Amino acid sequence: MPELPEVETVRAILKKRIVGKTIKDIIVQYGKIIKNQSPEEFAANLRGARLTDISRHGKYLIFIFDKAILVSHLRMEGKYLLSAANPYSKHEHVVFVFTDGSELRYHDTRKFGTMHLFMTTDLAAVLASKPLAKVGLEPFDEHLTPEYLSQWVTKSNRPVKSFLLDQTIIGGLGNIYVDEVLFLSRIHPAARVADLDKTSLEKLIENTRVVLTKAIAYGGTTVKSFLATDEVSGRFQNYLLVHTRTECPSCHHPVSKIRIAGRGTYYCEYCQKLPEDAGQP
Ligand SMILES: [Zn+2]
Question: What domain count does the chain have?
């Protein structure tokens, strides 16, 4: 599943390659990807639109046109292909044909991805509408503070792992990166979030930014599941500290694997103790 660093990598590549282009036509092969308009309305509304920027909020890509804003979520297997050479495959559900003859194709074998088109250029209004309204703060948002997290903590008895995976609190943190953040913070993934003190919350925020910054710099991790252009390498998988690892890079004990919130969770039981165990011999 593409996570924030992968979506950010896709955003940066697409921005470089297609901003400034104008849509000549839209070919919709599978209309259910488009959630708030019919395929005919969607195509008619985008014809003649010029792409002025590409933004991101959490794991959502935001295509900003001169007369509309398109919000796209890749979900499990969605990817954007930049190719006009080959015939359309059955997995290429929405094709954006530009006036220069190039194409952007949305490819999704699982068909779980979504697109919402808004007939406005007011990004703030789109961010306040469904589906973006439910996405929590961006990890790099200055409003993400221990005080912000505390508001949610008081209502939460959950393990910290599922707390960090909750997209309504922080938008864009997924399974791989939460394991890495917890390892760097030396916090057990099953620790109850209500038991964490302010220092721990500060560490979580700081390490979230450290891990995501590094992952973005390396082009993300899960390269197979997103964009098939040769510009993307997904080299962060070579730098994972605990997720899918067998030996802790810090103490060299074996890494443990458990399930939390249905997700495979890697941690070091020596470096990441539960709060009630901490300080005991
Ligand atoms: Zn360890």
Answer: 2
Q: Could you give the dihedral angle defined by the CA atoms of residues 277, 242, 177 and 139, in that order, rounded to the nearest 10 degrees?
A: 60
Shared domain for 10 and 126, answered yes or no, is yes
Shared domain for 118 and 38, answered yes or no, is yes
Catalytic residue among 263, 269, 273, 275: 263
Instruction: Say how far residue 143 (Cα) sits from the centre of its chain.
Output: 19
Domain with 128 in it: 4-134
Tell me, yes or no, whether 39 and 94 share the same domain.
Answer: yes
119-142 pLDDT tens trace? 999 999 999 999 999 999 999 999
- For residues 248 and 27, the answer to whether their CB atoms sit within 8 Å is no
22 - beta bridge partners?
A: 50
* Separation CA 119–CA 107 (nearest Å): 24
Contacts 24+ apart (CB under 8 A), 229-233: 229/13, 229/81, 229/82, 231/13, 232/9, 232/10, 232/13
Give the pLDDT confidence of 32-41 residue by residue, as tens digits: 999 999 999 9
> For residues 166 and 188, what is the distance between their CA atoms, to the nearest angstrom?
17
The confidence score (pLDDT) of residue 228 equals 45
* 128 and 230 co-located in one domain: no
DSSP for 13-63 reads HHHHHHTT-BEEEEEES-GGGB-SS-HHHHHHHHTTPBEEEEEEETTEEEE
Q: Tell me whether residue 3 is one of the annotated catalytic residues.
A: yes
User: Rounded to the nearest whole angstrom, what is the distance from the C-alpha of residue 272 to the centroid of ligand 1?
Assistant: 7
Q: Please report how many Cα atoms fall inside a 13 Å half-sphere around the Cα of residue 189, on the Cβ side.
A: 28
Q: Note whether 239 and 168 are same-domain residues.
A: yes
Compute, in angstroms, the gap from residue 257 CA to the centroid of ligand 1.
13
59 is annotated as an active-site residue? yes
Taking Cα atoms as reference points, which of 105, 261, 272 lies closest to residue 185?
Answer: 272
Task: Please give the pLDDT value at position 180.
Answer: 97
